[in-house]
Amino acid sequence: MAPRFSEWGRWFENLFAAGFYSWGCFVARHPGKIIIASLALTLFCAPFISYIRINLDLFKLFVPHDAPVKTEYLREQAFNKIPAGDLTVNMAKNISKRSAYPMFTDIVRYYVVKDNYENLLESETLAMLYNYTQEMMNVTLDLNGKTWRLEDFCRKDGDDKKCNNNLNVWLKHADILFRDAEGRNNPNIQLSYPVMYLFNRPKDIGNVVYGVNVTGEKHEIIGARVLTIHWFIYFEKTPESGAAYMFPRRAE
User: Fold this and answer.
1) Maximum Cα–Cα distance for the chain, whole Å?
2) Rounded distance, CA 126 to CA 121, Å?
3) Where do the domains of the chain lie?
């Protein structure tokens, strides 16, 4: 009859007990040799201690791959890498105040809606919209033998020669936020209404999101029917530039 597991367990127990007993007897008979051998082994291993690398990244070691907290943490890391967008007005210092033409200030605003006013706060849609704003900055118009670009009309920061897309960078933030229907409870990346913060820019909520759908105790925004994209306009309004100014509004 084959031995049972309990019998195997008892056999291993007796084996280990006998081994430890024999080792104890050996140490008791040769204490000096054991001490010298231990010190020699310690001295031999000491130079290699500096090469030891211990992985103390507890997040990778102990957080399960599919844990919601991992998704939330990784999303927050990606979220924090995106600049919030500096909306400070820094006009160029070299603009002549004696120009024969006035400086024209405006804002170009496009309203984005879907058929039947469906939800726009979806990651794929938001990413597409941001890429679209980048493409719109390269739109050109040939008028009276001259090529006009958005760069000729948009407001630059300081002495920059190029426009920035800071007004629309919130679309990238929202893209990360709405990549799935879960993990939006972290207050650092939460989109709530009434809004205490909107991607670090709470004052802009009324300019970019309309027709919101809210839910839960935190009044979390889960959808919106209308979004807007913007550019600040600031240029010297000559007869030629004034005639060409409407071209960004015709972009498709």
Assistant:
1) 111
2) 7
3) 103-186+230-245
Burial class of residue 47, CB neighbours in 10 A (0-12, 13-18, 19+) = exposed
Residue 126: closest CA among 176, 168, 182, 175: 175
Two structure tokens written together for 235: 């240029």
What's the whole-number average pLDDT of the chain? 74
* pLDDT number for residue 40: 93
* C-beta pairs of 136-141 under 8 Å, 24+ apart in sequence: 136/229, 136/248, 136/251, 137/163, 137/165, 137/231, 139/247, 139/248, 139/251, 141/244, 141/247
The structure tokens listed for 97 are 């105040």
Reported as a single tens digit per residue, the pLDDT across 25-56 is 988 998 888 899 999 999 998 888 888 877 66
Model pLDDT for residues 92-135, shown as the tens digit of each residue: 555 555 567 788 888 888 888 888 888 888 888 989 999 998 88
Q: Using H for helix, E for strand and C for coil, what is the string for 23-87?
A: HHHHHHHCHHHHHHHHHHHHHHHHHHHHHCCCCCCHHHHHCCCCCHHHHHHHHHHHHHHCCCCCC
Q: How far apart are CA 249 and CA 19, in angstroms?
A: 87
Alpha-carbon radius of gyration of the chain: 33
pTM over 0.90: no
